[in-house]
Design brief:
two-stranded antiparallel ribbon, alpha/beta, Rossmann fold, 6 helices, 210 residues, globular
Length: 210
């Protein structure tokens, strides 16, 4: 059973996502909307970050006020489409560390094959938020998190833009301890592993490729 599944249904998130679904949406606008949604998703996924009181001097007096405590968190992008979410999250938390995991999906088996892995050397001391726009078959992100767990980060969360029921179920089976945050749970996957109704291939729409 999944530890938690959070559907971020804020009106601004849903409005911007609807704009992104439009197949006529230009690449630049699609990319900007994704960046804006990513910032809003980052707000939700970081809601429980630990804080501690620090002394600060205001123009009127000295006080104890909350600030983030511990090591800065780390965003890990599943290449290449994950970078579209990464940019918006860094707008909100520019001091976060960043890692990348490169995977590609075999077109015949739909299995994920790793080709790149680079994360902070002290990731075992950090909370990690993995980002990838689509939770479709879950093969890629499940493989990415399996690899990441070898380095034993303090905590892992996963953020996506869209999810399919099949992907949510597969991910929950592979990583029941990893909370999932998404802007939408769509109807189903098609025979090629794409989310329906979805918004097409996120990477292609972000980068204007086919």
């Amino acid at each position: 059973m999944q530890k938690s599944f959070t559907l971020v249904d804020h009106p601004l998130v849903q409005h911007k996502l609807t704009l992104m679904r439009d197949k006529t949406r230009p690449t630049a606008n699609f990319r900007q909307l994704l960046r804006e949604i990513a910032l809003l998703l980052a707000y939700e996924v970081t809601r429980d970050l630990p804080t501690e009181l620090r002394e600060v001097e205001t123009p009127l007096e000295t006080m104890q006020a909350p600030m983030l405590s511990g090591k800065k968190l780390c965003f890990v992008s599943v290449l290449r489409a994950g970078n579209g979410l990464l940019d918006g999250m860094l707008d909100l938390i520019p001091s976060a560390r960043v890692g990348h995991i490169g995977l590609y999906r075999d077109p015949d088996t739909l299995e994920a094959i790793e080709y790149y892995y680079k994360v902070p050397h002290d990731i075992s001391e950090r909370q990690v938020i993995v980002v990838d726009p689509m939770l479709a078959t879950a093969n890629s992100v499940s493989a990415a998190i399996t690899r990441l767990k070898k380095d034993k980060p303090k905590q892992i969360k996963f953020v996506c833009l869209l999810a399919a029921p099949e992907g949510v179920a597969a991910f929950a089976q592979a990583h029941p301890d990893v909370p999932v945050y998404t802007a939408a749970l769509d109807r189903q996957l098609n025979d090629h592993g794409y989310i329906l109704p979805g918004l097409g291939d996120a990477g292609d729409r972000i980068y204007g490729t086919r």
